[in-house]
Specification:
The protein is an alpha/beta fold and 159 residues long. Helices cover 40% and strands 14% of the residues. The two termini are 23 Å apart. It binds zinc ion. Zinc ion (ZN) binds next to loops.
Length: 159
């Protein structure tokens, strides 16, 4: 089986990075100004570039097929996401909620004891499963925010 695609999202389609991470796809966010930096990372790490920038697909590396680029043809983020899902036949529940939405690092399981004092007391009383990002220290649990994201994954499955 082919390995899952990995991505690098251009600064002009930053929302996609969060949504792909939500689905479990390894996605970098490129905030630099020089496209060449993004292109070099994409080639070195075999990442698909997601962009609104038509200049990138004109590059020889892209036309020759060495560089994989998806040129998003709408401004609307949810439609952009559907375009990516359809182009690569992605599964919106590939590895849901396994990556940090902020920094793309795999999350680690934590016990109630481990998050005590770091999440609101009302959360601690009602939830017994937690995940933590080892890079930024953000803690995730299945609260209302999680439910909203879950609904989003349901919608994306309809693309
Ligand atoms: Zn993080």
């Amino acid at each position: 089986m082919a390995s899952a695609p990995r991505f690098i999202a251009d600064h002009n389609v930053g929302k996609l990075a969060k949504w792909l991470r939500m689905m479990g796809y390894d996605t970098l966010f490129f905030s630099g100004r020089e496209d060449s930096g993004m292109v070099a990372t994409a080639l070195a790490e075999d990442r698909v570039i997601l962009t609104r920038d038509t200049e990138i697909i004109k590059r020889r590396l892209a036309t020759s097929g060495q560089l994989r680029v998806i040129l998003l043809d709408t401004e609307q983020p949810e439609q952009q996401m559907c375009q990516v899902i359809q182009a690569l036949k992605l599964n919106s529940r590939f590895r849901p909620f396994s990556l940090c939405l902020e920094c793309n690092r795999p999350l680690e399981e934590r016990t109630v004891e481990q998050v005590k004092g770091r999440v609101p007391p009302y959360v601690l009383k009602t939830k017994d499963q937690y995940m933590e990002c080892p890079a930024c220290g953000r803690i995730y649990w299945r609260g209302t925010h999680w439910q909203r994201m879950n609904q989003k994954l349901d919608r994306l499955a309809q693309c």
